[in-house]
Amino acid sequence: MEIMILGTGCSKCEKLEKNLEVALKELNIDANIEKVDNLAVIASYGVMSTPGLVIDGEVKSIGKVPNVKELKKMLGK
Amino acid sequence: MNIFTWLNDQLLKMKWLWDLVELLVEKVFGLSMGTRIGGSIHFFIYDAIKIFILLSLVIFIISFIQSYFPPEKTKKIIGRFKGLKGNIFGALLGTVTPFCSCSSIPIFIGFISAGLPLGATFSFLISSPMIDLASLMLLMSFFGTRIAIVYVALGLIVAVIGGIFISKLKMEKYVESYVWDVENVDIEIEKMNHKDRVEFAKEQVKDIVGRVWPYILVGVGIGAGIHNWVPQSIIERILGEGNPFSVLIATFIGIPIYADIFGTIPIAEALMAKGVGIGTVISFMMGVTTLSIPSLVMLSKVVKPRLLVTFVAIVTLGIIILGYGLNGFSFLLI
How far B85 CA lies from chain A's nearest CA (Å)? Predict the structure, then answer.
């Protein structure tokens, strides 16, 4: 699974990463987490409110930090 | 006293808190309100508590409204309007779209890649930090409805006219070229229900209060200092109506400072009490909120120096003209 966190290093991005790690661990999923801070790339996903969460190329959440429960739902498909 | 005056005094101006802090200062600390120490301690405690209460309440209500206008949706709305209408809607939506300077760049790229005119984009970028519903409510509490409405109306005018100037100057070539290469993507915006919006608003309160509290305390501290320690004559000489450069000085002091409106309000309040003109005070507030070194550094990543300088010049000029205009007509306001 390819996961991207879009954001320019704000505190919310770090919180999102932490929640994500917990969710992945609980679900026993192996995934690549990539942090993207290139503005052109962020914008190319149509994301204007950071942090954005992209799972397997699909934008799942924007402008907020989903909690672990919500993340598990997004990861579970 | 009629019921509306009472409500305004108690709820918006929080007279009860004023009285309570007065009791604290006089009875618990044993200081007279007439002394400098007593007066400035009262100013500090009362203003700090009042701003935090108002801030939390206001951010909650405003965020709830803002949850209907994420930038991804704002982009589509502005895109429907051409020319002057685009500027006006850009400026208006700037007041309700949640905005943090950290997302100004993705918003800028998103707007431009969606084919929005540069002018409308700048109208949005000027109005966003300068005016929002939260500042309207805080200004009402501190300075009364009339001044609050004037601030918002004039802010919108600066944003619309600034955007028009930028579009007339045809500065598209001064946007960094990679911005034009970004493809426009419209993403599905998840539907929020009532509960989600309340949750979003709560998160915003936590986030914003957590971010701005140091600025507020510094602002209140400076306000308390001006209020009780700086002699009226000095303030009047520098910023009073007698000094023809007052607005210029206030604007240029305000511009490099990075703070939001919540931190500047106590300073503005203290300056007003010292007889500084309303135009001078508003110029200072607009300078602080709209332009700052961190936001310009951000913006320089997407526009070339020429456009950046033009943007700063137009906004500065707008703020200065506004300040002098307001000082000239202040008799209508107070």
Answer: 23
Pick B70's closest partner by Cβ from A12, A59, A63. A63
**ipTM of this predicted structure:** 0.74
| CA-based R_g, chain A, Å | 11
Render pLDDT for B230-248 as a digit per residue (tens, 0 to 9). 888 888 888 887 888 999 9
Structural domain boundaries in chain B: 3-175+200-332
pLDDT, tens digit (0-9, with 9 covering 90-100), for A22-36? 998 888 888 888 888
Q: What share of chain A is helix, strand, coil (3-state, %, to 5)?
A: 40, 25, 35
Q: How many domains does chain A have?
A: 1
Instruction: Please give the residue range of the domain that contains residue A41.
Output: 2-76
Query: B72 to chain A: which residues are within 8 Å by CB?
Result: 46-49, 62
Cβ contacts below 8 Å, chain A against chain B, sum to 66
Backbone φ and ψ of A35, nearest 5°:
-100, 125
Chain B contact present for A72, CB below 8 A: no
How many other β-carbons are positioned within 10 Å of the β-carbon of residue B26? 14
